[in-house]
Design goal:
alpha+beta, about 15% strand, elongated, two-stranded parallel sheet, about 35% helix, about 100 residues
């Protein structure tokens, strides 16, 4: 959750921030390095809940544009963050599996 707090609201997707001193040890620089999302080439499907306040549709759209191989991007009505963990209807997943 700490890493999510670091990157939430930012237009950068960075490695975990351990603090300046430990970042230098781990990354060779004071600030955590940015992750090149265009370098992630695995086919990725994004299902975004329109009611999600943690991972917003705006953030999902940004991520879809940053990924090199987003094969499916779908915004779902009446779905929030918890729906993906506890939802009883996961039928939208069959779209990408077919």
């Amino acid at each position: 959750m700490a890493h999510f707090a670091i990157i939430r609201g930012s237009e950068k997707f960075v490695m975990f921030d351990h603090g300046a001193e430990q970042n230098v040890v781990l990354y060779g620089q004071i600030e955590p390095p940015e992750i090149d999302l265009k370098g992630i080439t695995v086919p990725t499907a994004l299902f975004i809940g329109k009611q999600d306040e943690l991972a917003t549709p705006e953030a999902g759209s940004w991520l879809a544009n940053e990924l090199a191989n987003c094969v499916c991007y779908k915004e779902l009505d009446d779905v929030d963050h918890a729906s993906f963990n506890f939802g009883s209807d996961m039928g939208y997943v069959t779209e990408i599996l077919e």
